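Researcher: Structure for this, please.
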Amino acid sequence: MRISQRLRLALTAGVAAAVSVPGWSPAHAAVGTAARGDLPSFNGSVHAVAFRGGTVYVGGDFTAATRHGRQVGRARLAAFDVRTGELLDWAPTADRTVRALAVTGDSVYAAGDFGRVSGAARDAVARLDAASGELGDFAHRVNGVPRALAVAHGRLYLGGDFTAVDDATRRRLAAFRLSDGGLDRGWTPAADAPVHALAVAGRRVYLGGSFLRTNDSPAAPRLSAVDAATGRLDPGFRPRPTAVVFAVAADYTGVYAGLGGLGGRAESWTADGRLRWSRAFDGDVQAVTALDGTAYIGGHFDRACTRPNVDRFGDCVDSARSRIKLAAIDSDGDLDDWAPQANGVQGVRAIAASPALGAIVAGGDFTRIGGATHRRVATFD
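Model: Predicted structure, token format:
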């Protein structure tokens, strides 16, 4: 984490492990570098973004949105039309931070620190109607803090730093049936430390975090895969990243992850856990998505290293390219020339792709991209 590397080194020092990477030849991303200028802005951090057709749902720690100079209340949840930039009337409220969103059918699921949604008690998880924002009857008790959501195989998967759901032991992972909203009593994988990210591809649920054991096995620290139906650890995926995993995405080509540690890294593996590529940055990679074989990443880095090594302060050892908070990496592991250049300390916290629209949406703490004002949310197409 760039903002605290030197402070942390008063306690410990180290150098990120060297990993063989492809060459530095420039590539070209599928989306433009200019962010749309007609979107709503938000007065607080955006932690989560999700597409549903032409709608983007936003969750975070904001209390108002502004468009065309007009400010309206939006308490940690909002939505806008990605084609027109229009802020939608969708306006449920949460009393504390929304950290994750997942969309399926006519439902938007939210997870975070909140205890009430739209005035009703909801302990850390809630279901909202995708059109009206009406609060659904999906309600559970979560002993801890959720951080990640994913939807597939008739289930809503939940990851975070919790120990129980509805008085049933759940060590940082749980699933709910979409059919009736009930806790899936048969899906009980466990992690020994927080799960920061989830992604689903095929029959696997990929887990990223700071854990060293999944289902009490040390075989796949920080990034592992469990069966989407049974929760069993998949022995065929053992990538073993060297630092905490903050973000995970998956597509037909493989698995992508955003790492912290000294400096930060974006890495990709095949489905059998072989490293495809690794790129070093001078700050944490906190968000990742994939579109047409290109990985789009966000974080609070300022530079992409030309070599895999960083020094004991998390800075690039050799030359570097300017990539402020946003970058793209092609399928060969080459740094793309996509460089929107955002600002802020924490930078980009969330990023999502719409293959149907060929678009990317990013959310975070930034207020400018490419020299223009974009307060905490931006889209690229």
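Researcher: Any notable elements?
Model: The helical segments are 5-8. Residues 5-8 form the longest helix (4 residues).
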